[in-house]
Every structure is written in structure tokens, then in C-alpha cells.
Amino acid sequence: MSTDIDSFGGQIYASSSRESMIYQSSQFHAATPTALSVMADSILNPLFLQEELETQREAARYEVRELSTRPDSILPEIMHYVAYGGKTLGNPSLCAEEQIDRINADMLRAWTKEWFRPERMVIAGAGISHEELLELATKHFASLQSPPPSVYSPSQALKHSIVPPPPAMAKSTKPSLYKSLTTAASSLFSSPSPTEPVPINAMANEKANYTGGQLYVPDKDQEFDHVYIAFEGVRLTHPDVYASAVLQTLLGGGGSFSSGGPGKGLYTRLYTQVLNHYYTVEHCASFHHLYTDSSLLGLYASFSKTETIRKILAILAHQLSLLLYDPVNPVELNRAKKQLQSSVAMAMESRVVEVEDVGRQVLMQGHKVEESEMRRRIEEVTSEDIMRVAKDAFGPNSKPPTIIGLGTQDITDWKAVFQTYGVGQRA
Questions:
Q1: Does residue 35 sit within a domain?
Q2: Is the CA virtual torsion 207, 210, 211, 214 positive or negative?
Q3: How many domains does the chain have?
């Protein structure tokens, strides 16, 4: 397979997220049949050779350890865990290091058999005619059939461990941030893990249930203190998804230093009103994690330990309150819409992004929304739309917030701060 890929100078890789796994290739048109053949073989007839598994276990251990030292990678994981009560979207996307050696060939074969089903798969292409892609897909995937409905028992993962643990490896002397966070987060939820078998379809189709919650993890060794504030937003197919995207673009943000000086040439609110005014804030940005039945909309900040967490919470709450009670200036709104439209257009210039976008859209919502339609819907967003979306997400009658703190200061003052600014308080 490696020889085949090298022969046509292509690239084939796989990636995963909370809602999908993608096998993707880029190559000259003449090599597309070979590339799809290689991917089909990988998906339908994997060997899971022992030496390959050992290599990937080492890679997984390295990845977990590396990410464990980076708050910007781990804290979003914990935020999801807390926001969704450790279920559905709250399930971790990283494997706990102590579980890596339990994953073996038998487990992987059972997993692919259960989840790689025709009704869950989309084959998308860019730069190839539909008829040609259909012919290739039929050739390589027509034999794939759904197995009878089966069940998954959480204890099954522990019954397939036939690979002996490798010799002890030298570990970092620094405690695992990931382990400390997951340990702390797990204490928030007293519900025991299910022991009865769970139908696969029920597990796959279970709707996300946003709960919100707060978690503070003390860590005096971090260079900066960190805080995440998140609220539940709209789902992928909701009409207000475009207004939510414009709102997130309007807030913007990023690091405290950019080319030419702090915030130079950057007009988003978090740059102009936070990063340019508070030198103790090292990073401040908005985020929007969008899924088929929910989303997380909020703000993230990292700041000097000399600054108080209460002041940072007040700064962030103030920025949210401005969206609740003050209409957005037309010039500012238009700039945010043009910036978002430009980002969409530039992203779609890449066929790698284009084909992934097609696959995800069809998989998640059953059809593709054209780029021109996206631009039109973005252009139609009004100041009233921004205020409505803001009030639904973090207004006085919104659901409880999700707040994650890491560093030297607890987040116990959040309720008083939010109440002062009229943000995120359930009536």
C-alpha cells in the first residue's frame, strides 16, 4: 500500500473528531482509482499487524503526553466533559494513557465492523465527475453490508486485552495535566458507568444533553492562569447558525502580539477592547464548537498570575453583556460579515477543504449548502439577529454556563460577576 501511494505521489491520511472519522486523499486525477482502492482496502480489510499496533501505541502515548502539557489543547476537552456531563459530546476524544495497551487487533476489528456501516458512510470527491466517483464507489464498496444490530458493553474493552504491556518507559517528571483534569472532572458526576449492554444505534443516536458546570484545577506550575467560559449555542442545522458565526467572528481575538505590535490592523472586539487595553492578558479569543444537535459558544483567556481572576471574569462578562444590551454598530457588523465571507471563500479555494466540507455536510445534515448560499445567509444577518442569538445563549434566561479555570486562582466569584453584568443567569 505504501508503494502504491508513493508511486503516484499522493497523500492519504485519516483524522477524527467528535462526530466523524475521515479518510482523505489528494492525488493527480489519473491516480484516483488507485487511491480509492487503497482507502477501501484500509477501511474494509485492515490487517492490524502487531508491529504496526506497537508503533501506533507509542505514537498515541507520545501524543497524549505532549497534549497533556498544553492547556489550550486539554482545557477544551475538559470543557466538553463538564458541559455535557461526561456523555455524548462530553466523551473524551483522547484515550487515557493507561488504556492504550488494551487496544488490540480483535477490538479494532470489532469496532470497525460495528461502526463502518453503509448508512454511516459518505464518499465525497472534488475534481472528479459524479458518474466516475459513483462507478469507483460501487466497485470498491458495493459489497459492504450492515451487520445485524448488536450491543456494546462498556466492560468489553477490558476483555480483549491480549497484548502484554510494554516495558516501563521513562516518563516526564511533570505531573500529567490531562490526568489531573480528568480526575477532578470525574468527581463532578456521581452517576456510575453503565454495566448493562447498550444498543449501538441507541449510543450513536443519543442526543447531546447540555448540563453546564464549573471546574477549577489548581496548578501553580503553569506560566499563565487560564479560564474558559462557554454557553450552549444552536445546532448545525438551526437557522441562527449564521448569526452565531458572525457573532463569534465579531468577538474574534487571539494572542497579545501580532506583526507590527499588539493588535495592529485587527479590529475584532477582543483585540480592540481587551488585548489592546489590558497588558496582563496574554491571549483572549472567542470560540464556537458546532455539532449536529448542540454547540458551545464562548470566550477563552490566559493571563498573568499578577492579575485577579475576578477582574478577568468581569472583562469577559462585560464583552458578553455588550452583545446583550447594545446593538452592534452597522460598520462593525458589516466588517465581521465580510471577514466571515472572506474566510469561507478562501477556505473553499482548497480542494482538500472543499471535499472535506462536502463529506461532512452530507454526513451531518444530508445535503450540501453551496458557498454562494452561505455568503447570502451571512449577508442577511442583522444587529437584531446578533442580540437574539446572544440572549438565547448567555442572556438572563439562558442555561447555566460552563466555566473551567486552571492555575493559581479559584473561580468562586463567577456568579457575583455574571450577575453584575446580567450575563448567564437563569431566571
A1: no
A2: positive
A3: 1
pLDDT over 80 (residue 326): yes
Question: Which of helix, strand or coil describes residue 306?
Answer: coil
Residue 87: strand, helix, or coil: coil
Phi-psi region of 336 (alpha: psi -120 to 50; beta: other; left: phi over 0): alpha
d(CA 334, CA 328) in angstroms, rounded, equals: 10
CATH number of the domain that 253 lies in?
Answer: 3.30.830.10
The pLDDT of 372-397, averaged and rounded, is 96
pLDDT in tens, 327-343: 999 999 999 999 999 99
Parent domain of 335: 212-427
Q: Which residues contact 301 (CB under 8 A, 6 or more apart)?
A: 226, 227, 274, 281, 283, 284, 312, 315, 316
Q: What is the pTM of this model?
A: 0.86
> In this prediction, what percent of the chain has a pLDDT beyond 70?
84
Distances (CA, A) of 187 to 73, 75, 131, 217, 403: 21, 16, 54, 12, 16
CA distance 67 to 369: 34
